[in-house]
Amino acid sequence: MKIHDRPGFPNPARIRIVLAEKGLDAQFEFVPVDLIGAEHKQPDFLAKNPSGVLPVLELDDGTFISESTAITEYLDNLDGKPTLTGRTPREKALIHMMQRRAEADVLDPVGLYFHHATPGLGDALQAFKSPEWQGRAEMGQREAEKARAGMKYFNDVLADQDFLAGDAFSMADITLFAGLMFADAAGLGVPAEHGALLQWRERVAQLPSVKNRSGQTFLPFDLKRMGF
Ligand SMILES: N[C@@H](CCC(=O)N[C@@H](CS)C(=O)NCC(=O)O)C(=O)O
């Protein structure tokens, strides 16, 4: 099986954490994709994932699976003992709900801010971003506000419980962790007053599946050089 990705980027990091949690790394071949050179917007890659984003899982039978949640569900259920996506209907529903909130209210808005209110990943990739968004920094700023509201929401949640969906680490925590990692790299950061969120992040950062990959959890390009 193969994972098409680029280490260091937030969504690929989600799957690298899942693989480490499940002890599956050795079973996968990692195929690097040149994100900064916009390789993922070319026909060869679009045939694998028409959305033109990373990561993509390639099964041995030639099936391509994209969307980090779908890939996570596949990997988590391979051994018949899901630990990240829930076992009971209640666990599954709570994890799904919180995962979606982490994605919709933090990770995705941070990405939109990054690509539309900053130089993003540079000229080659910006050429593929929605032309009506080009230079519309105020729209990107609105996404930043949305991400900040999402952070406040999760800080409130984590004041009362250890993890996003209750007392166990799950796919929802992985998504939010990636969202905050992206927020740091994009220059948004996490407000210091969100103590519960920051403490949770520190706890997650210490998990073996996350800690062992700390070198891969930050974006690899030089953001300062790109004007941050
Ligand atoms: N919803 C997708 C999002 C994937 C995504 O946005 N990946 C980023 C890398 S972190 C990407 O490929 N960005 C390139 C682009 O937007 O052109 C998922 O869950 O996997």
Ordered list of secondary-structure elements with their pairings:
Layout: E1 2-5, H1 10-22, E2 29-32, H2 43-46, E3 56-58, E4 64-66, H3 68-77, H4 89-117, H5 123-126, H6 137-158, H7 171-185, H8 195-205, H9 208-211
Parallel strand pairs: 1-2
Antiparallel strand pairs: 1-3, 3-4
Helix pairs in contact: 1-3, 1-7, 4-6, 4-7, 6-8
The structure holds glutathione (GSH).
The site of glutathione (GSH) has 12 residues, from helix 1.
Question: What can you tell me about this protein's structure?
Answer:
It is a single chain. This protein folds into two domains: 2-77, Glutaredoxin (3-Layer(aba) Sandwich), CATH 3.40.30; 89-207, Glutathione S-transferase Yfyf (Class Pi), Chain A, domain 2, CATH 1.20.1050. The chain has a four-stranded mixed beta sheet with strand order 2-1-3-4, covered by helices on one side. Mean pLDDT is 90; it is low at 214-222. Helices cover 49% and strands 6% of the residues. The longest helix has 29 residues, at 89-117. The protein has 228 residues and is an alpha+beta fold. It has helices spanning 10-22, 43-46, 68-77, 89-117, 123-126, 137-158, 171-185, 195-205, 208-211; strands at 2-5, 29-32, 56-58, 64-66. The chain contains nine helices and four strands. The structure holds glutathione. Glutathione binds next to helix 1.
